[in-house]
Amino acid sequence: MMMRVLTAMMVVLVFGGAGLSETAKPNIVLIYADDLGYGDVGFNGAHAVKTPNLDRLAREGLRFTSSYCTAATCTPSRYSLLTGEYNWRRKGTGILSGDAALIIEPGRTTLASVLNDAGYRTGVVGKWHLGMGGGRNDWNGLVKPGPNALGFDYSYVMAATGDRVPTVYVKNGRVVGLDPDDPIEVSYREGFEGVPTGQTHRRELKMDWSRGHNSAIVNGISRIGHQRGGESAWWVDEDMADVFTVEAVSFIERNRGGPFFLFFATHDIHVPRVPHGRFVGQTEMGPRGDAIVQFDWQVGEVLKALDRLGLSENTIVIVTSDNGPVLDDGYKDGANELLGDHRAGGPWRGGKYSVFEGGTRMPTVLRWPSRVEAGKTTDAIVSQVDYLASFASLVGERLEGGAGPDSENVLGALLGETERGRERVVLHAGFTVLREGDWKYIPPGRGTRDGLGPWSRVRIAEPGMLFNLRQDPGETRDVAGEHPEKVKAMRARLEAIKAEGGVR
User: Fold this and answer.
1) What are the φ and ψ backbone dihedral angles of 83, each rounded to 5 degrees?
2) Which pLDDT does position 20 carry in this prediction?
């Protein structure tokens, strides 16, 4: 205990100057789940699924109750996390197809490039979904630009999602295991003659689709988009968590001398949910529940590696998610039927695709044993868009010009040293809403999805909806009519933020 206190004092003393010294700079591991809801984890009250590794992080670190992604879908949140810019400020940042062009311009300041400039070895493993190349790529050669043009020294990723082609891994711009005598072709415009699809061969699928996912068949599962050739490189869904975890651990081992930054963006628990056989049946919720157990295992393997290599004390581990939970999201995997009394969104209303809190309020923990007090909980408002400015401050890097326009330095809140985070945060799910203190304002004129899929749709009439999240965390009582001045003020504030270029 005394050694930990002395270490923490040394770090604080160094941090009080121009920045951390090379030896004091912590390693950073950001584990990014996909579609994991606030209530899907034990430390937020889940009982139907066990998450011992995530619960360990919560005991040993700081748990957040008001931590937000920026959008209720995947590509937009990833864009904001890396660039420090709200996704709605930039066209083309919606959910991307598998062959979309890279939507972050090479050379732009990103979380990875800032840490790289500070002397970090940087790597991304897992789901990318920010586009690669120039669009409509030839996947048989070097596909660039990609993650390596944005500050990552190493990348081992899937281009988009598990339910979209191409169904291959891409390492530093090249498809892994591709046979040059069997080139791969990808199309999002039309199918390939004679190639089976989820429509023509539906009875042969091992997981049936409920909507949309009925084109190319890979591993007995039909996907979005068409593909043929390159079969030696096709992934096996059941092995995906193992493949990505081995890559993540290997990156840590290769860079144990530090400092390093690993962005470990898992595919779990996104559809298609096809966990490895050793996780099947671990819950009574079917593939979705079992995929949560598999995700927790991946977190545990990273923690084991850090312990084994003696790196845990000075490594920041953050676990969060890109958006809220969803049940049926295109495949018949029993997610709705087997849910039971499990509350995937916790106390919050809505989920993925929704502007209600369940869409963007994320399960989040941060552990840094040498600096962050264990076992604490904070209600400070923080957003993933703030990681850029906050970690730049941590390592002594200055954001120049218009870099990270919406990223606020909330490092004190992230480290549990203050309860003061953001005063307000803008959230997005097709349109923008504003949380300011205890209040949440949803403007009129647009509808939003409610529930976790299949969805009902809520229409929002004038003057919009207003909720007091402290008194009504489930957003069940619209009080806009009782507080017209608050509605007017928050509506004006939201419009002003949208008109501005960002907080910086």
Assistant:
1) -100, -20
2) 61
Could you give the C-alpha distances from 312 to 153, 388, 408, 459, in angstroms and in order?
A: 22, 22, 27, 48
427: tokens are 């959230």
Query: Given pLDDT bands bounded at 50, 70 and 90, which one contains residue 4?
Result: very low
Rounded CA gap, 99 and 135, in Å? 6
Q: What single string gives the DSSP state of each residue in 84-108? A: SS-GGGSTT-SSPPTTPPPSS-TT-
Strand, helix or coil at 450? strand
> Which letter does DSSP use for residue 168 in this model?
B
Domain ranges of the chain: 28-184+229-414, 424-499
- Mean pLDDT check: name the lowest of 3-17, 115-129, 232-246: 3-17
Four-point Cα dihedral 75, 76, 77, 79, nearest 10: 80
Q: How far apart are CA 119 and CA 23, in angstroms?
A: 11
**CATH hierarchy code of domain 28-184+229-414:** 3.40.720.10
Q: Computed over its alpha carbons, how large is the radius of gyration of the chain?
A: 22
Question: In 3-state terms, what secondary structure has residue 60?
Answer: helix
Could you please report the per-residue DSSP string of 269-317? TSSS----TTTTTSSSSTHHHHHHHHHHHHHHHHHHHHHHTT-STTEEE
The reported pTM is 0.95
The pLDDT of residue 454: 79
Given a contact cutoff of 8 angstroms between Cβ atoms, the answer to whether 73 and 94 are in contact is yes
The domain made up of 424-499 is a member of CATH 3.30.1120.10? yes
The first and second tokens of residue 143, run together, are 């596909």
Measured CA angle at 500 (ends 496, 503), to 5 deg: 105
* DSSP letter (8 states) at residue 398: P
Cβ neighbours around 400 below 10 Å, total: 8
